[in-house]
Structures are given as C-alpha cells and as structure tokens.
Design goal:
The structure holds two protein chains of two kinds. Chain A is mainly alpha-helical. In chain A, about 75% of the residues lie in helices and about 5% in strands. Chain A has a single domain (about 15-125, about 155-290), classed as ABC transporter involved in vitamin B12 uptake, BtuC (Orthogonal Bundle), CATH 1.10.3470. In chain A, β2 and β3 form a beta hairpin. Chain A is globular, with a radius of gyration of 19 Å. By secondary structure, chain B is an alpha/beta fold. Helix content of chain B is about 40%, strand content about 25%. Chain B has helices spanning about 40-50, 70-75, 95-100, 110-115, 120-140, 155-165, 185-200, 210-220, 235-240, 245-250, 255-260; strands at about 1-15, 15-25, 30-35, 55-60, 65, 80, 170-175, 205-210, 220-225, 230-235. A six-stranded mixed β-sheet of chain B has the order 6-7-8-3-9-10, with helices on both faces. In chain B, α3 (about 95-100) packs across α5, α5 (about 120-140) packs across α6 and α10 (about 245-250) packs antiparallel against α11. Chain B is globular, with a radius of gyration of 19 Å. The two termini of chain B are about 30 Å apart. Classes of the chains: A mainly alpha, B alpha/beta. At the A-B interface, α5, α6 and α7 of A face α2, α3, α4 and α5 of B.
C-alpha cells in the first residue's frame, strides 16, 4: 500500500478508536472531577452497555430491522439502563463511603468492576457474542480511503455527545453544581444544592456515555464479550490522564490523541499490532512522570 | 414574633458537652448577635442551625417549622443562609458563577430541559445570570462578575460570599465573624451593608462576632455564650454591664475583656 493511503487509513481508524476512548474517558474524568474517585468499574459499564444494546437490538430487529432504525433506540435505551445502573452502583457501593479514605473507595470500585464482569460472564458463559447489524460498507471515497457511513456516524455521534456534555457542564445549573461540588461539597449544601443527587446525576451521565460507546463499539467491531471493558477502561484512564483528568475537553483530546497514537503506533516498524498496548501504556507512564496534570490540566496549587 | 427559636438544645461530641440546654430566639427583622469567649460554642450553634451537626436534644424552629432533623440543603431551601469566618468560596469559579450557584435552590428547570436547551431552561439561565449580577451590584462589586473568585482581593471575596448567600433568598442570614480581618473603614461599610440587608431586603441577621465595638453598635439583641451555656442576653447596654459577662471575659483573656468593656 502506498504510504499516503496507509496514513489516511490509520487517521480514520485512529479517529474512530479515539472517539470510543474519548466517550469512556469523559465519564471517567467527570466522576473523578466531581468526587475524586477513579471509578475502575467504568470500563465495565461500557461492556454492560454493549450487552444491553445487543439485547435491545435483538428485541427490536424483528420489528425495526437491524439498521440504524433499530440501533438508535437500542443505544438510547442502553444509555438509560446503564445510566441507572451507574446511579445504583453509586448509591449502594460508593455513597456509604463518601467520608471514608480514598483507598477504600478505590478498592470498592475494583470490586464493583469484578462483580459486573463476572455477572456478565455467568450469563454469557464467556463466549464472544456476535453483534450483527445490517449496516453495510456503503460510504464515500475520500481520495484513497474508503470511509463508511457507519464510521462517520460513530465519530459524529461521539462528537455530538461530547459537545452536549461540555455545554451541559459549562452552561447549566447542574453543571455549575457539579463544578462547585468538586471544590467544596459542604458549601454547596449551604447553597441548597442536593449534593448526593448531583453526584448521582454525574454517575448517570458518565455511565450513559460509556454505554453509548459500548453499543457503538459493538456495532463497529461486530462482537462483544464480558471482558471488553477491561482494556478500554485502562485506556480511557490513560486518555483522561493525558488530557488532564477531571477536565472535559481534556478527556476528549486525550481520547482522540490516544486513538491516533495507537493507530499510527501499529505502523511503526518493530511495534506493530502486538505491541500497541505497550506503546500506549508507555505514554501513560511518560505523562505520569513528566506531566501528571495532563495537557489541559492545571497544576495543583497547594492551599495555604 | 420570633423567626428562629432554639429550645433546650444540647450538643455533645464523644461525651464532651459543647452546648448545654440552650434557649435562644431571634426576632423577625432584627439584627441579633451571639458573642462569647473562644470555644464558647458559637460556631457549633451555627452548625446545628444549618443542619451540619445534629443536636442531641432540643428543637430548632424556623418560622414555625422544625429544622433540626433536616439535611443542610433542605434547611437552605427553607430560608437560612450563612457565610464563613474563613471564606468558603468556589475559588476556581468566577464571582458570577459563585453567586449563580447560590440560585440553584431557587430554580427548577430539570436536567432534561438543560440537556435539550429548551426555552424554559434558556430563560431561567438568563434570569439566574441577571440575578447574580444584581446581587454583586447590591454588595458593591458589580465589576467583579467575570473575575475568578480566588483572584479577587480579600475584601471583595467576602462580598462575593455575601452575594452568594443572599442569592439563596434567605429569611435569616447567619454571619460568622464578618468583621474578621477588616480595617476600620471596611467595618463601617460592613455595618452599612448589614443595615441595608435588613432594611431594604427585610432579611433578619444573626451574627457571631469578636469585635465588640461593632456588635454593640449594630445589634438590637445580644446573647452571650460561655462553655456552651447562655449566661446572659438582652440589649447591648444590659449585656455590657452584666457581671457574669464581664467575669466570663475577664476570667479568660485580658484583651477580650477590655474590648468588651
């Protein structure tokens, strides 16, 4: 293949991969931004979202078909269901530990992750489930690269969700309440802000975005399994750190950047497909060492 | 009529009594002060009122409704606001956003409205922004709106905190040492501002303060705490001449006693 074609192809792959990462990273980053919890179960919500979307699509396909007419409502339903699951997880696992040391909550998050993975494992027997759709390979040719409509819709949906989220957090009273809680929850209570409810809303939105990403990934890759959330959880964390954790535009940027790095990384001689994860996590280490606040994160200022 | 009534309130932490059988009332439309030596339990009273501490016994009623078992955000919604001795601003947000956060409890567009950007939500956001600007104007810092709160001079940060408290539309405003760290002319402005809040907005004020000159000048009614008990209450004149009050201050700290005299 000519070099130009390879580069363009990897650019397309990188953007798609990156938009999955970005959507998951957003939820990661949002929850961290508000309650300073690294929700290790977040990647598993992506996985549960994929299964929920698969379930919905199986129900709808007889009636709406397995094209976008069936996929769109499946995505929406999966987002609502997983959003509520996120709220329930917060309520029973994290909220009782709100005043506990951070480490306890972190360990709890790992436990929640295992519960989700193993529950789905028990139901699916660990098999790969084929996520078949009627989406073909129709698309447009951009120079040397063929971009399918599916790919465009995936990237488009991710971008729309990210923009909506950014506007929500920066322009609405709920977003303001979230940002205020991140700074001083007790002062928020004195403003009449229902802190627990706002945190629940944060979990709902973050989990719903992870679910959207999960369904889109299922649609794109055509198969899902109980373990698919593990690696993407770690990568989303990496993306959030690269962009500046707790920072929404940072999570988007980090996600897209990571997707591109991974796509182009596979093309570097000597790295290739098997080494791509090593390549990606090496970046995490580099960022943690040299710029722990990420690209867009502000350095932490010690309070007097 | 009393806007706030505390009856038989006791508070203890791990067997140590912080407040003992406290009775106190704040008349509607008054400026009332709570004074006492350090560690007398004044801030604990505020924390009980705002719902952060749960008193062991006793009742607190605000405008006739009990508030002593309510979560803090519910108390705020019923019309109680406070400021802090050490400012508790959202330092990374702008002054306007701080005040807008104070409007949270008085606005109601749902999260779905917000996501969809409905007209109802846009209109409400505009009203919130306008109210924030109005409150910043009321406390005398209309130009601070777009500045990040943490970057403002100390005196202005205080005012932002006041504007934020006022934005919750309280009936009763609790001020925790509002004069701390202010110079003489700033204290004059503070007194004028407190009077405007009471006279123009009809908001009742309860303050904790160490500056006796200011307390005597501004208050209509004063309660004195010592070791978690109320040892005196009444008009500034009466309290100033109360032998128990003088003893409480003299017994502990020469400086504060001379301020009280």
């Amino acid at each position: 293949m000519p070099l130009q074609e390879i580069l363009l192809q990897q650019l397309a792959n990188g953007l798609i991969l990156g938009s999955f990462y970005a959507l998951v990273a957003l939820g990661y980053s949002m929850v961290y931004g508000v309650i300073k919890l690294l929700n290790f179960a977040h990647g598993d919500l992506y996985m549960v979202g994929a299964f929920a979307g698969f379930g919905c699509l199986s129900l709808f396909s007889g009636w709406l078909g397995a094209g976008w007419a069936g996929i769109v409502p499946s995505i929406l339903l999966s987002m609502v269901a997983v959003g509520l699951l996120g709220v329930v997880i917060d309520r029973i696992a994290y909220r009782p530990l709100r005043e506990a040391p951070k480490l306890s909550v972190l360990i709890t998050a790992l436990a929640v992750s295992m519960v989700l993975e193993n529950t789905v494992l028990a139901f699916t027997g660990g098999q790969f489930t084929a996520f078949s759709t009627d989406l073909g390979f129709a698309g447009i040719d951009l120079g040397l690269v063929h971009v399918t409509y599916t790919q465009m819709v995936l990237v488009g949906t991710s971008i729309v969700l990210m923009v909506v989220l950014e506007l929500f957090v920066s322009r609405t009273r709920y977003g303001r309440a979230m940002r205020a809680i991140a700074i001083d929850p007790d002062a928020c209570r004195l403003m009449g802000i229902d802190v627990n409810r706002t945190i629940a809303l944060t979990f709902f939105i973050g989990s719903a975005l992870a679910a959207a990403s999960g369904v889109l990934a299922g649609v794109y890759y055509g198969s899902i399994n109980f373990f698919m959330g593990f690696l993407i959880g770690l990568k989303a964390f990496t993306a959030a750190v690269i962009g500046g954790i707790g920072n929404i535009p940072g999570a988007m940027l980090g996600g897209l950047l990571l997707g591109l790095l991974e796509a182009f990384g596979t093309q570097i001689p000597g790295i290739g497909g098997q080494w791509k994860d090593v390549f990606v996590f090496a970046f995490l280490i580099l960022f943690l060492v040299f710029r722990p606040t990420g690209i867009l994160g502000k350095p932490e200022v010690e309070r007097m | 009529m009393a806007l706030l009534e505390i009856a038989g309130m006791s508070l203890s932490f791990g067997g140590i009594e912080v407040l003992r059988d406290l009775d106190f009332a704040v008349e509607e439309g008054s400026i009332t002060s709570l004074i006492g030596p350090n560690g007398a339990g004044k801030t604990s009273v505020f924390n009980c009122l705002t719902g952060f501490y749960r008193p062991r016994t006793g009742q607190i009623t605000l405008a006739g409704g009990r508030i002593d078992r309510l979560a803090p955000h519910r108390v705020t919604r019923l019309g109680l606001a406070r400021t802090f001795q050490n400012l508790r601003l959202f330092r990374e947000l702008t002054a306007a956003e701080n005040v807008m956060a104070g409007r949270h409890c008085r606005t109601g567009a749902g999260a779905l409205d917000a996501v969809l950007g409905t007209r109802r939500h846009r209109r409400e956001e505009a009203a919130i922004a306008e109210a924030a600007q109005r409150w910043l104007g009321f406390v005398g810092i209309p130009d601070a709106a777009e500045r990040v709160a943490g970057s403002l001079p100390y005196g202005h940060q205080r005012r932002v905190e006041w504007a934020r408290a006022l934005a919750t539309e309280p009936r009763l405003l609790l001020l925790d040492e509002p004069a701390a760290g202010l110079n003489a002319s700033e204290k004059e402005e503070l007194i004028a501002l407190m009077r405007r809040i009471r006279d123009e907005l009809g908001i009742t004020i309860l303050l904790i303060e160490h500056d006796m000159g200011l307390v005597m000048q501004v208050s209509e009614h004063i309660g004195v705490l010592d070791h978690g008990r109320k040892i005196a209450e009444g008009t500034p004149d009466k309290v100033q001449n109360d032998p128990l009050v003088i003893e409480a201050y003299l017994g502990r700290d020469e400086d504060e006693a001379s301020e009280a005299a």
